[in-house]
């Protein structure tokens, strides 16, 4: 009975150790320095697995990893979404946003069909913009609610 309980706990732990995002922050020889799900950096050697991410190969500024049976290429300091779901398609999505020279994640988008540059805050639940951008796209920001 104890063996069954231990096996079930180990299986549950394996299922929970799944990465949603991975970022390569450095390399040391054949080891990759990874940040998984926004956690602390961890040095992982080729062939080793950390939080569901297996390092397949390492080069000076990039690495190949495997997550959930899928291979993903990582470039230095470019976070990659590797989790399932989202995006309305089976199998998940992959979104890579470049980091600008100031360390911000930027992307182009639109509001009411008008182009707007967005700065992504991974912990935010609202969208902020300057008064100048609001005026440019015809948005009456003075009638908005915080």
Task: Give a short summary of the structure.
With 146 residues, the chain is mainly β. The protein has two helices and ten strands, in the order αββββββββββα.
Helix-residue proportion? 10-25%
> What's the number of helices?
2
Radius of gyration: 20 Å
Question: How would you sum up the major sheet?
Answer: 4 strands, antiparallel
Proportion in β-strands = 35-45%
Summing up helix and strand content along with how strands pair, one would put the structural category as mainly beta
Number of strands: 10
Q: Strands across the major sheet, in which order?
A: 3-2-1-8
Mean pLDDT: 75
Q: Quote the distance from N terminus to C terminus.
A: 56 Å
- Pattern of helices and strands: HEEEEEEEEEEH
Assigned CATH architecture of the largest domain: Roll
Shape estimate: elongated
Topology-level CATH name of the largest domain: SH3 type barrels
Total domain modules = 2
Low-confidence blocks of residues: 1-16, 85-91
What is the C-level CATH assignment of the largest domain? Answer: Mainly Beta
Report what the structure shows.
- With about 150 residues, the chain is mainly beta.
- The protein folds into 2 domains: about 20-80, SH3 type barrels; about 95-145, no CATH class.
- The chain is about 15% helix and about 40% strand.
- It has 2 helices and 10 strands; from the N terminus they run αββββββββββα.
- The strands form 3 sheets. Strands 3-2-1-8 form a 4-stranded antiparallel β-sheet, with no helix packed on it. Strands 4-5-6-7 form a 4-stranded antiparallel β-sheet, with no helix packed on it.
- The protein is elongated.
- About 10% of the residues are buried.
- Residues about 1-15 and about 85-90 have low confidence and may be disordered.
């Amino acid at each position: 009975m104890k063996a069954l309980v231990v096996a079930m706990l180990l299986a549950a732990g394996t299922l929970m150790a799944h990465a949603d995002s991975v970022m390569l922050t450095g390399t040391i020889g054949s080891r990759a320095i990874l940040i998984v799900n926004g956690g602390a950096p961890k040095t992982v050697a080729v062939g080793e697995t950390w939080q569901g991410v297996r390092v397949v190969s390492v080069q000076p500024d990039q690495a190949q990893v495997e997550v959930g049976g899928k291979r993903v290429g990582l470039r230095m300091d470019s976070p990659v979404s590797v989790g399932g779901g989202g995006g309305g398609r089976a199998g998940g999505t992959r979104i890579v946003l470049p980091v600008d020279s100031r360390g911000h994640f930027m992307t182009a988008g639109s509001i009411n069909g008008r182009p707007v540059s967005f700065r992504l805050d991974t912990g935010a639940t609202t969208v902020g913009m300057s008064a100048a951008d609001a005026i440019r796209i015809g948005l009456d920001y003075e009638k908005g609610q915080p």
